[in-house]
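Shapes recur. One chain:

:::
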Amino acid sequence: MHGATVHAIGAALYETFAYDEYGQLLTSNFYDYHVPHALDLPEIKTGHIESPSPFSSLGTKGMGEGGGAAIHAICAAIQDALRAAGKSAVVNDSFNPPERVWRMLQTPEETAALVEVTTQ
């Protein structure tokens, strides 16, 4: 679970395939494509909740990507922080490195303009 959580944190904050205007990959090595390591991460605490499946004879379930929720939690935390700062920016991407969050703080109207709210 820790590995999946770290992978999700990396996907949300550090890892991206960046290309220039000619299609040349700019993040082709681990200097430019940053994979998070222990110094980038908070302490991860885990807890367990047992909830047997009513659909299998042993009550078992598949694990899948147990730490994948970190991407959504990080995006929600960024959105909450922007709102608490009085910004109208909208987190509209799952990859939010520090420079993108800074841009949302400085020019919140850029991402807010991408969202249309209608009432019925």
The mean pLDDT is 89. DSSP finds four helices and no strands in the chain. The longest helix spans residues 69-84. The radius of gyration is 18 Å.
